[in-house]
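$ run holo --ligand "zinc ion" --emit tokens
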Amino acid sequence: MSVWILNGLVWNEEAGTLVKQHVRTEGGNIAEIVDGSQQPDTAGSEVIDAAGKLVSAGFIDMHVHLRDPGFEYKEDIATGTRSAAAGGFTTIACMPNTRPVTDTAETVKYILDKAANEGIVRVLPYAAITKNELGRELTDFAALKEAGAIGFTDDGVGVQNAQMMKNAMALAKSLDMPVIAHCEDDSLVEGAWASEGNFAKKHGLKGIPNESEAIHVGRDALLAEATGVHYHVCHVSTEQSVRLIRLAKSIGVSITAEVCPHHLVLSDEDIPGLDDANWKMNPPLRTPRDVQAVIEGLEDGTIDIVVTDHAPHSAEEKARGPQLAPFGIVGFETAFPLLYTKFVRTGQWTLGFLLKRMTSDPARVFNLPTGRLEVGAPADLTIVDLENEREVRPETFASKSNNTPFGGWKLYGWPTATVVNGKLVWTKA
Ligand SMILES: NC(=O)N[C@@H](CC(=O)O)C(=O)O
Ligand SMILES: [Zn+2]
Ligand SMILES: [Zn+2]
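-- output --
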């Protein structure tokens, strides 16, 4: 099956601008990219009209929670992949804090099978570092790799014991697999939900200090240096973490890092008050100074990629209020519009920079074949309307959950169609 995507705007890095081009896919790959002034013969092909819209390599999200198996009331693989597609994502990597925890080959296979049958984007499963993510006993890394896991992480919690982490890294290294870490020292957090900043001060709350994250980043950078493993830091949110990653990179440690849109556009001082748990996520929103530091970290390459940390929770759970509700916000359907509106339309970043951090950079960091709009590459494509402003309406999300602090925000950069492996999997209704 051949598909022509006509008259779209493709980012041209040399020219530093969008250029009108036609893209043809064939058998799941990109077959041709031709200048927009030509009139391609589309006879016998499916045609997608992308006139005036951005055509990009599909976005890649290396940190998401699909909640399947076990928490299907929050999300499942069918709805989670639809939410991803609606956000322009064509590849997503799902975290193992499911029920059961993804700590056996059987559960990895369950995810891959269900994704193949009911998913509409590519799903790459991570497996847990420790059994049940309890930090006590390593999982069977070789069997999990064999089953299709792409890396090891206990996301949701930090690995508290340094020897456990070192053993995990040594074993992962021997299998040529990465270790992905949620960095959080439990002894420094206890019971707090907001960061140690002006919001916590104003409301008399105990705060989560920046060191609770950065202590693990520093510890793990040393362990990564010692073991030589590819070590990837989850959802970087503090100035101190950025500083440590920058130092580790400068001395050649195999370390990479990610940041979420919410940590780039919100600080603790934006939290409106104590009743809305949609402002509660882990790591918490940090101070404006930290926001500046993670932006600079992403800009200078200290932080490699953008991820959503899509973390759906039910309305009932979030209605318990910030002290009792679980941490996390959904992210797929607002990620690109938020960053495009806040950083590209304002002129701080080029469109090419944002696209790179959401496509070819994650592909580079995790050795994926996708993420590039080139002849011969897999035909994973995202088509985006850059011109029309629209309000974020959480009740319309394809996700089962709508726990977001961005409801009502007016944004540009809304995906209109998503192609995976040459197949149109989603179009905006
Ligand atoms: N980020 C969150 O606030 N929550 C995540 C866990 C995690 O990513 O650590 C979740 O699973 O809900
Ligand atoms: Zn986490
Ligand atoms: Zn997460």
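-- notes --
The first strand starts at residue 2 and ends at 12.
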